[in-house]
Write a structure and sequence with these properties.
The protein has 469 residues and is α/β, with parallel strands linked by helices. The chain has helices spanning 16-26, 39-45, 60-67, 78-84, 110-122, 139-147, 170-175, 188-201, 215-246, 250-258, 279-292, 296-323, 351-361, 375-385, 390-396, 403-407, 427-432, 449-455, and strands at 6-10, 31-35, 72-75, 87-90, 127-131, 156-160, 180-183, 210-213, 332-336, 365-369, 397-399, 412-415, 439-442, 458-461. It is built from 18 helices and 14 strands. Bound molecules: 1,4-dihydronicotinamide adenine dinucleotide.
């Protein structure tokens, strides 16, 4: 294939938007069109005020501002973009199935298949298809099956190019990735396609960081990477419970083990549990794949990572109840943070949702403050669980745009997201306006517990055994 000059990406979400913006920034000679069926999302990507783009990521609006209108375009004209592109990235959602066989575990590939069929219908010339979405190992063969039976003689090469960016640091990660992984067929045509994608990344990524493998290794590596990362979180979280019983301190333990170069210091922060759209979904997928090959022990091993994570969220909620004298009925609990981690407005699978759900079952009143998450998202997340009627969620939860207001008259504050701004608050002012004893449950070990205790708060930081000293 000739040099790539026109790319299209199907799916303008948390991955499609930022990755394509970065390619457009680094490759001004390539026209990049990101398409989506969701008109509101595309409208937001095209908003005159670049601060209103639908994905919040530090530095992203600058990248978009530089390239948008030059060689970066957002559009709902999916067919046109497919027709014109030489290379098509598929970056649509691949959530866990909520129905039928594999419900609750397998990835729902409905949207991937729709994309493949649409590409098959529209294409009139040869194209390279790039799986950007995270997919179960061997998905490329399903896509290939659809694309090779069009009967119109068009040739497709299918590559796997999983995305390793982390939300909250997407721009940094895309600008200087640890590695880029490209999987392709080991045929002459496959090698040409791989090289075409390598050439795009080589515009800014050092060659030694661009790894090429066969398609299946690439697909499986993405699931594996997320499984390993989530496993580290569940491992450290499992030890918080031991720390709380034994007067060991999880922060000290994490530091002590993290200095071992074989273990390393990253991803050892104890918390109320991991969230985000990927970790749980990808592990469940791995578990499903293992089970479908009859690998029961392998499946059980990875499933435990999810079991521990669910336990941690429930445990945190139960601690709040227990420490509020075994009832939160009618009590006001302020949530600091709703996003699944700091520096993102993404709330998918956020621990906050599950902790809130548990406390609402106990008739608590929750007031939520998050610097980036809008009110309608909080309600949508709770309604999605289907635990109670939407009106009941509205009655039990208030979303407040001022953190000081959110905790006025509250019995307790629960820190659910590690937003930096929480550390700089006027905690004396917060204390003065709360009911006493004023309690803080720090699910992220974010705040300086000693300072807060000096003010008068009773503080419980996860993985340390003290509520008040
Ligand atoms: P998302 O839900 O934010 O975006 C997906 C977009 O695709 C939506 O806007 C949806 O309207 C659009 N879409 C679905 N079907 C379509 C079709 N047929 N035509 C046009 N548009 C269509 O999802 P997100 O977070 O961007 O994830 C995409 C994939 O990337 C998933 O497979 C995910 O596992 C993977 N991934 C996500 C990461 C993350 O941090 N969010 C990181 C690495 C991989």
């Amino acid at each position: 294939m000739e040099n790539i000059t026109k790319i299209c990406c199907i799916g303008a979400g948390y991955v499609g938007g930022p990755t394509m913006a970065m390619i457009a920034k680094k490759c001004p000679h390539i026209q990049v069109t990101v398409v989506d069926l969701n008109e509101a999302r595309i409208k937001a990507w095209n908003d005159e005020d670049v601060n209103n783009i639908p994905v919040y990521e530090p530095g992203l609006s600058d990248v978009v501002a530089e390239a948008r209108g030059r060689n970066l375009f957002f559009s709902t004209e999916v067919d046109k973009a497919i027709d014109e592109a030489q290379m098509i990235f598929i970056s649509v959602n691949t959530p866990t199935k909520t129905y039928g066989a594999g419900k609750g575990q397998a990835a729902d590939l409905k949207w991937i298949e729709l994309c493949a069929r649409q590409i098959a219908n529209i294409s009139k010339d040869n194209k390279i298809i790039v799986e950007k979405s995270t997919l179960p190992v061997r998905t490329a063969s399903a896509i290939k099956d659809i694309l090779t039976h069009t009967g119109n003689g068009v040739q497709f090469q299918i590559l796997s190019n999983p995305e390793f960016l982390a939300e909250g640091t997407a721009v940094e990660d895309l600008d200087a990735p640890d590695r880029v992984l490209i999987g392709g067929d080991n045929t002459p045509e496959g090698k040409v396609a791989v090289q075409a994608l390598v050439d795009i990344y080589a515009n800014w990524v050092p060659k030694e960081r661009i790894l090429t493998t066969n398609v299946w290794s690439s697909e499986l590596s993405k699931l594996t990477a997320n499984a390993f990362l989530a496993q580290r979180v569940s491992s450290i979280n499992s030890l918080t419970e031991i720390c709380e019983q034994t007067e060991a301190d999880i922060n000290e333990v994490a530091k002590a083990i993290g200095t071992d170069s074989r273990i390393g210091p990253k991803f050892l922060k104890a918390s109320v549990g991991f969230g985000g759209s990927c970790f749980q979904k990808d592990i469940l997928n791995l578990v499903y794949i293992a089970r479908s090959y009859g690998l029961q022990e392998v499946a059980d091993y990875w499933e435990q990572v999810i079991i521990m994570n669910d336990h941690q969220k429930r445990r945190f909620a139960n601690q709040i109840i227990k420490n509020l004298y075994n009832t939160v009925n009618g009590k006001k609990i302020a949530f600091f943070g709703w996003a699944f981690k700091k520096d993102t407005n993404d709330t998918r699978e956020s621990a906050a949702i599950y902790v809130a759900d548990h406390l609402l079952n106990e008739q608590a009143h929750i007031s939520v403050y998050d610097p980036k998450v809008p009110e309608n998202q909080v309600y949508a997340d709770l309604d999605y669980l289907n635990t109670r009627e939407a009106e009941e969620n509205k009655a039990g939860v208030q979303v407040i745009t001022d953190p000081y207001e959110a905790c006025k008259g509250s019995h307790a504050i629960a820190v659910l997201t590690e937003w930096d701004e929480f550390k700089g608050y006027d905690w004396q002012r917060i204390y003065d306006n709360m009911l006493k004893p004023a309690k803080i449950f720090d699910g992220r070990n974010l705040l300086d517990a000693d300072k807060l205790r000096a003010i008068g708060f009773q503080v419980r930081s996860i993985g340390t055994n003290v509520l008040d000293k």
